[in-house]
Amino acid sequence: MLKDFKEFVMRGNVLDLAVAVIIGAAFGAIVTSVVNDIVMPPIGLVLGHVDFKDLFISLNGQSYPTLAAAKTAAAPVIAYGQFLNTVINFAIIAFVIFIIVRQASKMQRKPATAPAAPTTKDCAFCCTPIPIPAKRCPNCTSQLTS
Questions:
Q1: For site-directed labelling of 141, which of 4, 44, 59, 117 has its Cα 20 to 30 A away?
Q2: 114-123 pLDDT, tens per residue?
Q3: What is the pTM of this model?
Q4: Which strand (E) or helix (H) includes residue 6?
Q5: Taking Cα atoms as reference points, which of 115, 40, 118, 51 lies closest to residue 79?
Q6: Which CA distances in Å does 55 have to 52, 97, 101?
Q7: Measured between alpha carbons, how far is residue 40 from residues 27, 104, 142 in Å?
Q8: Which helix (H) or strand (E) is 78 found in, with range?
Q9: 131 - beta bridge partners?
């Protein structure tokens, strides 16, 4: 059983999938950092010094200075600022994956098609191409044996 498991894990597809998941997680962390640390601060500055991570709506009717304070008080909140950051993360990752898949499909070789079966053969007497099932050459009228 251990041998079978080792063979399963050492298959190329399983290893490729494991590498893809690890690289995908690292890429996701990079995109999250880009959105939170590079993209959203200038947008927040343009919109009047707004930090999107702290945008929320308190559902219990009380006012809280920050999202952290509301969560500390165990208040029910809709954290739409964090949701907005997550949507932007998703959009960037989806776009990058689209570009990668598009480029990979362009680089993939087209499957080689099998050569078409011949439909003619050469006459053994006059070397003219004739249909394979022919019994007599239409050009030299020779009787064909094959």
A1: 117
A2: 788 888 999 8
A3: 0.56
A4: helix 2-9
A5: 51
A6: 5, 29, 35
A7: 18, 31, 86
A8: strand 77-78
A9: 120
Helix axes of 2-9 and 12-34: crossing angle, nearest 10 degrees: 50
The pair of structure tokens assigned to 138 is: 């239409």
Backbone angles phi, psi at 67, to 5 degrees: -65, -40
Question: Tokens for 46?
Answer: 């343009």
Q: Tokens for 74? A: 């165990």
* Amino acid at residue number 131: P
For residues 121 and 130, the answer to whether their CB atoms sit within 8 Å is: yes
Fold assignment, 11-107 = 1.10.1200
Question: Which residue carries 């200038």 as its tokens?
Answer: 42
End-to-end CA distance of the chain: give it in Å, rounded. 58
Please count the CA atoms within 13 angstroms of the CA of 13 that sit on its side-chain side: 1
Alpha helices in 35-145 (DSSP H): 40-46, 67-72, 80-107
Structure-block tokens of residue 94:
């989806």
Tokens of 107: 């680089």
Amino acid letter for position 29? A
CA 119, distance to chain mean position in Å, is 43
Q: What is the pLDDT of residues 14-44, one digit of tens each?
A: 777 888 889 889 988 998 888 888 888 888 8
In the chain, what are the domain boundaries? 11-107, 117-146
